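Sample entry (109 residues):
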Amino acid sequence: MSALVVTSPFVPAEPLRKRAPAFDEHGQALSDFMMLFPGLVKKPQHHIQAAIEHIQTVFADYAHAVVFAELNIKLNLLWISVKPIPGIRFQIAEALRALIPEARIVSHV
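Predicted structure, serialized as tokens:
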């Protein structure tokens, strides 16, 4: 997996649909989902940094599955693209919630 991308609220970015991969290295379609971190943008910087570190810890445990991830602090959203492994979205979501209890899964495809 590549590193977690943290977007800046001050620099416009290319649309996520153009940056997030749609297929893995074997041509299999990836699965995407989002996690919401309510109020993250309003938290002190040390709290935001701790959340980023927790996210990176979970992704290290799931490096075999996570292909792309982007945290948009301004929107309090984490986009995650994973390999097509049954149940992996929910495993990752629960692992994130174990470290960041306010985290909520909001979408999966």
